[in-house]
Amino acid sequence: MPLTKSKSQKAFQANVKAEIAAGKPQKQAVAIAYDVQRRAKKADGGGLYANIHAKQERIKHGSGEKMRKPGAPGAPTAQAFRESAKTAKHKDGGVSLAVGRGEKLPAEKGAGLTAKGRAKYNRETGSNLKPPQPQGGSRRDSFCARMGPVAEKSEKGSRARASMKRWNCPGW
Length: 172
Known about the structure:
mainly alpha
């Protein structure tokens, strides 16, 4: 049975149930349902702020529509704005992290984010960054596989090469 391509919670729950019924483990079913939901949001055209700006443009060009007042039925809720703010594009390309404020390490000390930097990034984006896993494990293996080609193309002393050493990737 095909999954429901929607960003609603109801569709998400239905997709999880469908995947579990198809014999997938619960964690995998949830991951698949999240992926379908994320793709639906992306295909939607950018989310809450994109919808608001698109409606403002249509009004400007004479569509006859009107913006809903806060609290009116169908208007975005305060919770919707909070959730949307987590994924909205940040000014200047993202969260500002600096070595001087102790949020990231210089390349000489292994690059990467400090606990303070991870906390700031997670707070501002709603992410869940975790510290490096240098002792080994699936996260380390995945990191090393993704960063290896980047680090090979980088010059000596770069942050990419320093992070490979910090994670104890084989061959670095």
